[in-house]
Amino acid sequence: MSEFGVHVTIDASDCDKSKLASYSLVYDVLNNLPARIGMTKMTLPYVAKWLDKFSDGTEGMSGFVMIAESHISIHTFPDQDYIFMDVFSCRNFDTKKAVQYLVNAFGAKKFDVKVHKRGLSFPPKIHKQLIMMH
User: Using one digit for the tens of pLDDT, what is the confidence trace for 60-96?
Assistant: First the structure.
């Protein structure tokens, strides 16, 4: 791998609105995904309910879990039927498996996935040491 890591971003819509408004679902997804893709959870997930400026009254959720390899985050907009999700890791992982799990969890029928190679100029010696530690 010549990059430091891979960053998968998912913009999804046409979801189950009740799932986008579910604190427990967002928490559970963030809690379970790291093990499913071979990552190491460093903290319990943190999820916050919030009303954004676009809301029609339904609280959205923003959640984050720190993993030894980097992070996973979710931001829901139930009134707009939209969700943003991302997984960033310095360790290779099955990006398709991660995307499928996230998309299925929220019942998204439409989604756009981007896979970004990050840290292309990160010092290779340091990167190799980081990978060996995880």
Answer: 999 999 999 899 999 999 999 999 999 999 888 999 9
pTM (predicted TM-score) = 0.86
**Are 10 and 113 spatial neighbours (Cβ–Cβ below 8 Å)?**
yes
* Rounded Cα distance, 73 and 88, in Å: 9
Walk me through the domains of the chain, giving residue ranges and CATH numbers: 5-133 (3.60.90.10)
Element (H, E) at 11: strand 5-13
Buried b (16+ CB within 10 A) or exposed e, 90-100: bbebebeebbe
Tell me which residues are annotated as active site: 70, 75, 90
